[in-house]
Specification:
The protein is of the alpha+beta class. It has one domain: Rbstp2229 like protein (TATA-Binding Protein, 2-Layer Sandwich). The chain is 28% helix and 36% strand. It contains three helices and seven strands, in the order E-H-H-E-E-E-E-H-E-E. It has a seven-stranded antiparallel beta sheet. A hairpin with a 7-residue loop joins strand 3 and strand 4. The two termini are 37 Å apart.
């Protein structure tokens, strides 16, 4: 059974939605940063920090791609996709006719997200790297991160 983590774009995020190419650019930036860290340490850190190749299948239709591990024993697959869905939001507003009372108003909004999925073939190494990538992306986009274990991390500025 596969498990997924979600990076949701909420109020306060740097953007409302991203494309798959923008996510790929973030991974390229990540590898550049780790490469520079490795140069400072005089160590080939980039292969340890990002032990994957980015690959896309024709049936993905620009909706997802996957990271294929370079060392099959430690790392196998992480799937990454972008999407949106309709969610119902409820807000409370004061009732002008009845003082002290509130009305609940339901509205439907579009919620955009990045989904990171571990397949049944994924290893513990994949899960660790996926968590690391999720935190990096959520921090870059100031988004809300829903981890594989159901916990939520807020990188967006909240009131």
């Amino acid at each position: 059974m596969s498990r997924s983590a979600y990076i949701k774009f909420v109020e306060g995020s740097t953007t409302k939605q991203v494309t798959l190419d923008e996510v790929k650019q973030q991974f390229k930036r990540y590898t550049e940063m780790t490469s520079k860290t490795g140069q400072q340490l005089d160590w080939d850190y980039v292969h340890s920090a990002f032990p994957y190749t980015m690959e896309e299948k024709p049936e993905a239709n620009g909706q997802w791609f996957y990271l294929k591990g370079t060392d099959e024993k430690l790392y196998r697959y992480i799937l990454i996709g972008v999407g949106s869905r309709q969610v119902e939001k409820q807000t409370k507003q004061p009732d002008p006719e009845n003082e002290g009372q509130t009305n609940v108003i339901s509205t439907t909004e579009e919620e955009n997200y990045i989904q990171i999925t571990l397949s049944t073939e994924s290893t513990h190494g994949d899960k660790g790297k996926a968590n690391e990538f999720c935190k990096y992306l959520a921090k870059e986009y100031k988004a809300e991160l829903h981890l594989f274990n159901g916990r939520v991390m807020y990188y967006n500025p909240r009131k």
